[in-house]
Amino acid sequence: MKKIIEIDLNSKEDLLERYNNKRISKDLVEYLINETNFVSKKDSIVIQINNNIKADIDIAKYLINGLKDEYESTIRSHLKNNIIQIVLFFLGIFFLFLSTQINSSDIWKEILLIGGWVPIWEMIDLELFNDFRGRKRKRILQKLMDSQIIIN
């Protein structure tokens, strides 16, 4: 099945960032991602752009470059999350190890035990929810980059 996403560009500001005319608008990229959110893997996407801009701009090039930049940003975010997960895991293991070494005071042992499980649970939360959203976003962006662009 074919999913058609229509975009009406009435001014240059609809396409380009407000403070950097070399980059595509983040609002436009988010709009495309939201419109593609529920498209299945088998469906093809057609981006139909109704160009009412009088300026001589290569809209398809800007769009593809903007989607590539967003894809790379999502990959960097995923790598950052992986580093945070590793740090949280080792921090949790460190506190759990310390809790096993304390024999004298029960309260400090319990504080370290709880303090060890909190970062581990935070690591699991990052893996289950943020990484899932990131993988879905990368899949959508890849589908958008591979889509057909028609400019009217």
Task: Please tag this protein with its features.
3-stranded parallel beta sheet, 152 residues, alpha/beta, single chain
Structural commentary:
A 3-stranded parallel beta sheet has the order 1-2-3. It has 152 residues and is an alpha/beta fold. The chain is built from 4 helices and 3 strands. Helix content is 64%, strand content 13%. 11% of the residues are buried. The two termini are 22 Å apart.
Summarize the structure.
The protein has 152 residues and is of the alpha/beta class.
Per DSSP E runs of 2 or more residues, the count of β-strands stands at: 3
| Rg calc | 23 Å
Q: List unreliable stretches of 5+ residues.
A: none
Number of helices: 4
Q: Distance between the terminal alpha carbons, to the nearest Å?
A: 22 Å
Succession of helices and strands: EHHEHHE
Binned strand content: 5-15%
What do the pLDDT scores average to?
Answer: 90
Question: How are the strands of the largest sheet arranged?
Answer: 1-2-3
Query: Roughly how much helix do the residues carry, as a percent range?
Result: 55-70%
Q: Biggest β-sheet, characterized?
A: 3 strands, parallel
Write down the overall geometry.
elongated
- The computed structural class is alpha/beta
